[in-house]
Amino acid sequence: MKHTPFFATLVLLFSLATGFAYAEQPVININSADAVTLANLDGIGASKAEAIIAYREANGPFQAPQDLSNVKGIGARTVEKNADRLTVK
User: Fold this and answer.
1) What residues pair up with 86 in beta bridges, in sequence order?
2) Domain containing residue 41
3) pTM of the model
């Protein structure tokens, strides 16, 4: 009994499922993003997202993504984890 179509289907489904896990995350402009969008960053919850917005309003736009570590409660490690997703354009 040949199982080739069955196994081919399983391989295809597995490939599709794992491909979505590696989908590229969207880039987030930390100078214009709202709290919901900022909360999608790794290590950033609702309260830190609000702190980012408050810092931005008090101090003006961020000059570089690394400036995000100036916000109380956000360290260099959090910025590093999100480096590929941050922009200030």
Assistant:
1) 28
2) 25-87
3) 0.73
